[in-house]
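Hello Y.,

Per our agreement to keep a running log of every chain we model this quarter, I'm adding this entry. I've kept the format consistent with earlier entries: sequence first, then predicted structure.
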Amino acid sequence: MKLYNIKNIEKFCSVIDSCEGNVTMLNEKGDRLNLKSKLSQFVALSSVLGAEEKPISEMEVLVDNPKDTMKLVEFALCA
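Predicted structure for the entry above:
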């Protein structure tokens, strides 16, 4: 699933942490980073954000658990 215009990075990370299964970011090179790992979150988000704290315009994520998909959809709709 693709998520767009993620402004609240802290809330996004909180939603990822609450997910039961793996949440994986797929970058433009085809690399997969497990966002459930704090180190991977830092690496993934710093590569997307760069040096500035700005909204993430687009991010593709893969989820293992359908319940987690709903959490991310709710986050995207409320953000």
